[in-house]
Give the backbone structure.
Amino acid sequence: MLASSGATSAGISFYLVVVVVLAAGVWKVFTKAGRPGWAAIVPVYNVYVLLQIAERPAWWLLFYVLSIFTFFVPPVSLGIALVLGVIVGIDIARRFGRGGAFGVGLGLLPFIFYPILGFGSARYQGEGGTGDPGGGGFCAHCGTPLTPGDAFCANCGASTTPA
């Protein structure tokens, strides 16, 4: 028996809400880490940027591609995706001062944990703690580049000193 169109519409609507919430959370994580937020919605490039934030080598992108090519062997594809998601999630969590359990959450339930990380108070601490090893860093709230010595972000007015 076919599902009613109302149930189908509700399922699609729920799925779209989850995707938008996840994309918004990853966008905020990217900007906190000094990367362009729009990269969160560009397929494959978003994984590359995530690997940069996690400080993993770029060749790890091949593992993600492998999980796509093994799509027709679900246990293998799912296994690769879960292991990579958890490892990268733990690295991302640590770059934001969070623990390993939060990283496992990023890997297994990204649609919940990335928005928490992105919209929460966590600050990016990777690459020397500023988001930019050679300059003034980036605003943890909006991602605007900062000049060394700035006490407040010129874009959003947030304090640039750690709390």
The CA atoms of residues 42 and 49 lie 10 Å apart. Helices lie at 5-32, 45-53, 61-69, 74-95, 100-108, 110-119. The two ends are 58 Å apart (CA to CA). Residues 5-129 form one domain.
